[in-house]
Specification:
The protein is 48% helix and 11% strand. The protein is an alpha+beta fold. Helix 5 runs antiparallel to helix 6 (189-197) and helix 8 crosses helix 10 (242-258). It is elongated.
Length: 435
């Protein structure tokens, strides 16, 4: 209920009748203030008129007046400049650290808003706001999608910055880790990121002109060269495989040279995984990309068109994997190259966020603008989330649209955080929705 009170106050969804404090003084809300999402009072620099006197200060909101004491605000000097205490129920008077009594306003939530909010929280149909979507104006949809698109890139930027910190400040290494994560294509994303963090690129660079040695390090660090990392029914033929034996010998030498330890093989997931997504195949493709000097950050920043990005990210497996999916498991129908759809996913989830993040990091606005431009030139992704929004009536044409709607579902709908959503706002303020 307190969240809803915040919402009603922030958007001035006030009753038509006059407002007054619990002791009978007239209240006029000039400006609800700036919503504070950090520690301290809920709204900063609000402007309210109480009995004809203008007060400028902070506002605190609670379900019940007694929550003031439950949260120890009476002992916290940060709350001494609260000019109005807004509550759902006034069950006691409250004082600040100076012993001064605060004016309190019982804020009624409009019945229609309360009922619409109850529907949003209780409906089983997903998304709960589906009724209002066909009625939204194009301006409302486009402005919210643009904001969500930026929010998603900002969120990915924070993840990249965190990887750079874990890589001792190396954005080059952070790019490789980000690229590797997205080579997991969802199901093995965490395993690929963990693997990439355990690939010592400074050591790999000493053997960058030898594709076999790069693949030996990559496969070995993934734990794929351990006998217990091979399915039991394939173990005998894998161990007898000449290429497997050569990789093992080379990795053993390099691991000793650079003091490397592989990750745990059990991190990889194979259940219901298509053979072309096996980590062996993806790691071989990454080894080739790295060997051909196309996994570097400088090359990415040079790309000025979507086609240039696609060309940069295109790669293929090494010769052995043209006829195998795993060691000892021969197949004549293997896929050598990344598919166009896979390259576009890597572009959307790796290249574009990295370009945006570097634009923010180096304060180059043109890189950020280019990231947005690329999203508008790529077609929308195809997945169950996008299908859901399309069935609700939203048009999804570009990758910018699909990224915005993925952000909407994951960060708002899944959390039932309708009070921060602009579609939720339109739903709450609309006339009563019949269930």
């Amino acid at each position: 209920m307190e969240q809803l009170l915040h919402y009603v106050w922030k958007h001035k969804m006030l009753p038509l009748k006059a407002l007054e404090t619990t002791d009978g003084r007239m209240v006029e809300i000039i400006d609800p203030g700036l919503h504070n999402t950090n520690a301290g009072p809920d709204f900063f620099n609000a402007k309210v008129v109480i009995s004809g006197t203008l007060w400028v200060g902070n506002v605190e909101i609670h379900d019940r007046s007694s929550d003031w004491y439950l949260h120890n605000h009476h002992k916290d000097v940060r709350y001494d400049n609260v000019v109005l205490h807004v509550v759902g129920v006034a069950d006691r008077d409250v004082q600040n650290t100076r012993g001064e009594y605060l004016p309190q306003l019982v804020l009624p939530v409009p019945a229609t808003v309360a009922e619409n909010y109850r529907q949003l929280l209780s409906t089983d149909k997903y998304p709960p706001c589906y009724r209002i979507i066909p009625q939204l104006t194009l301006l409302t949809v486009h402005s919210w999608m643009a904001a969500l698109q930026t929010e998603r890139l900002e969120q990915k930027t924070k993840a990249i910055e965190k990887r750079a910190q874990l890589c001792n400040g190396s954005w080059e290494d952070a790019y490789f880790v980000t690229l590797a994560r997205n080579y997991g294509f969802g199901i093995n994303g965490d395993a690929f990121e963990h693997w990439a963090m355990h690939v010592p690129l400074h050591a790999v660079d000493k053997h960058r002109d030898d594709l076999f040695q790069i693949e030996a390090i990559f496969m070995g660090q993934a734990g794929l060269l351990k006998p217990d990392g091979i399915p039991e029914h394939l173990r005998a033929q894998a161990v007898a495989d000449n290429y497997y034996q050569k990789l093992c010998r080379e990795y053993q030498y390099l691991a000793h040279k650079f003091s490397m330890e592989p990750i745990n093989f059990s991190l990889w997931r194979f259940l219901r995984l298509r053979p072309q997504n096996f980590p062996h195949i993806r790691i071989s493709q990454l080894a080739n990309l790295y060997y051909e000097r196309r996994a570097g950050l400088s090359r990415l920043l040079e790309c000025e068109t979507v086609d240039a990005l696609r060309s940069l990210l295109q790669t293929h497996v090494t010769p052995y994997w043209e006829t195998h999916y795993s060691f000892g498991n021969e197949s004549p129908h293997n896929t050598k190259f990344l598919s166009v759809s896979s390259i576009d996913l890597l572009t959307i989830n790796t290249a574009i966020p990295m370009l945006f993040a570097m634009g923010r990091h180096r304060q180059k606005e043109e890189w950020c603008d280019r990231a947005f431009d690329f999203l508008e030139k790529l077609k929308a992704e195809k997945n169950h989330i996008i299908t859901m929004w399309q069935e609700c009536g939203l048009q999804v044409k570009t990758a910018g649209d699909s990224q915005a709607l993925i952000q909407l579902k994951k960060e708002y709908c899944d959390r039932r955080d309708c009070l921060r959503c602009r579609i939720g706002y339109e739903y709450l303020r609309a006339p009563h929705h019949n269930e």
